[in-house]
TrEMBL record:
Name of the gene this protein is made from: proC
The protein's role, per its UniProt record: Catalyzes the reduction of 1-pyrroline-5-carboxylate (PCA) to L-proline.
InterPro entries: 6-PGluconate_DH-like_C_sf, NAD(P)-bd_dom_sf, P5C_Rdtase_cat_N, P5CR-like_CS, P5CR_dimer, Pyrroline-COOH_reductase
Domain Pyrroline-5-carboxylate reductase catalytic N-terminal: 2-94
Protein name per Swiss-Prot or TrEMBL: Pyrroline-5-carboxylate reductase
EC number: 1.5.1.2
Length: 264
């Protein structure tokens, strides 16, 4: 039995992704304290919604998908209820394996994972790292579970805050770019529907090409940049406005915020 504790944005993305890839709804429990939200998850996914302590008593694998700020209270609630041998996977930004271990008690195997919302369409990117009591088989199990909703990499824990800044928050940066490009098209007189289609397909086409070609993005960008042409004019404006530095600073800020979250 798998329990997803926290039926918010990311908990739902994992739930939807696992169900879409053939997980039996009867083998999935959800914990969600907010009544209307719990009802929505019941009706949309046929989920069984139970309190956290009950989920801990029943599940072999618990996925903790609550806010980092709520984590310590939840760990203290479930610690005494866990089934022997249960694996606890936290997807909370900034929450370290040592904090999980400290509150869950001696010997509990934990995995710190950082997924992203494209998991909902099976195109997630997740990084995982194990705690001191986690065996290779348990890490394999967590990887197999998350692989159902996308790609998975293993990283040393010291990189998890950087992962959070790159791929955890990453989809938001692309939605921000998409939003900005669509608005630019609308400002130039194009219909919102057409601008949306042009931008969406351009982003997904560029991402597919980047992924499948294995080329460095600079090579692909140069292929778009005709001498004396439109792209060169656009890129010069991006550089003039410091967009490269803005991205680097934004990603560092996300990394630093992830570090802060482990301090409560
Ligand atoms: N959103 C994203 O793209 C990603 C998020 N994450 C991580 O996932 C976690 C959840 O984020 P997100 O889904 O965005 O946040 P949300 O606020 O959408 O979801 C959190 C959910 O957990 C519920 N909750 C709060 N306390 C408990 C509890 N004790 N037991 C069970 N459920 C509880 C909340 O209910 P209520 O609102 O009533 O408090 C809410 O529905 C965070 O730790 C975040 O760092 C990781 C990767 C990507
Ligand atoms: O914004 C956040 O804190 C979470 C973690 C990564 C993506 N969303």
């Amino acid at each position: 039995m798998i329990a997803i504790i926290g039926g918010g944005k990311m908990g739902e993305a994992l739930l939807a992704g696992l169900l879409a890839t053939g997980h039996d709804p009867a083998g999935l429990l959800v914990t969600e304290p907010h009544g209307p939200r719990a009802e929505e998850l019941r009706t949309t996914y046929g989920s069984t919604v139970v309190p956290a302590a009950e989920a801990a008593r029943q599940a072999d694998t618990l996925i903790l998908a609550i806010k980092p700020q709520d984590m310590v209270d939840l760990l203290d609630t479930i610690a005494a209820e866990l089934r022997p041998g249960a694996l606890v996977v936290s997807i909370a930004a900034g929450i370290t394996t040592s904090l999980l271990e400290k509150h869950l008690g001696a010997g509990i195997p934990v995995v710190r994972a950082m997924p992203n919302t494209p998991a909902v369409v099976g195109a997630g990117m997740t990084a995982i790292t194990g705690g001191v009591h986690t065996t290779g088989d348990q890490l394999d199990h967590a990887e197999a579970l998350l692989r159902a909703v996308g790609d998975v990499v293993r990283v040393p824990e010291r990189h998890m805050d950087t992962v959070t800044a790159l791929s955890g928050s990453g989809p938001a940066y692309f939605y921000f770019i998409a939003e900005t490009m669509i608005e630019a098209g609308v400002a130039m007189g194009m219909t919102r529907t057409t601008a949306h289609r042009l931008v969406t397909r351009t982003i997904s086409g560029a991402a597919t090409m980047l992924d499948s070609s294995g080329e460095h993005p600079v090579v692909l960008r140069e292929a778009v940049t005709s001498p004396g042409g439109t792209t060169a004019a656009a890129v010069r404006e991006l550089e003039r406005h410091g967009v490269r530095t803005a991205f680097a600073d934004a990603i560092e800020a996300a990394r630093d915020r992830s570090r802060d979250l482990s301090e409560g």
